[in-house]
Amino acid sequence: SYNYSYLSDLFKKTTQSTLSEYYHTRKLEVARLLIEERKLTISKISQLLNYSSVNAFSNAFKKKYGVSPKAYGKGLNGAGGS
User: Fold this and answer.
1) Model pTM?
2) Which of 21, 41, 43, 80 has the fewest CB atoms within 10 Å, i.e. is most exposed?
């Protein structure tokens, strides 16, 4: 059986990111997809993804994508979708 430290090191060598970084990146990718679906509010998305507050979610999203979740959603208006 493998211990956490070994698996964590192996993951980082393979992906060039820590488990925590990977988790937070995936969480923000899910948030982006949920915003694109336009079925949930930003507040609901932040709760669903277990952020401590809407502000914490907005800050993380903006750090990753360079735009707030609200601005990202508004920017989709002329996108046409798939």
Assistant:
1) 0.83
2) 80
pLDDT tens, residue by residue, 39-48:
999 999 999 9
DSSP element (H, E) containing 67? none
Domain count across the chain: 1
Exposure b/e, 53-65, CB count within 10 A at least 16 = b: ebeebbebbeeeb
Cβ atoms 81, 71 nearer than 8 A: no
CB 35 within 8 A of CB 41: no
Give the pLDDT confidence of 4-34 residue by residue, as tens digits: 999 999 999 999 999 999 999 999 999 999 9
Q: Say which CATH number the domain at 46 has.
A: 1.10.10.60
Distance CA 70, CA 31 (A): 12
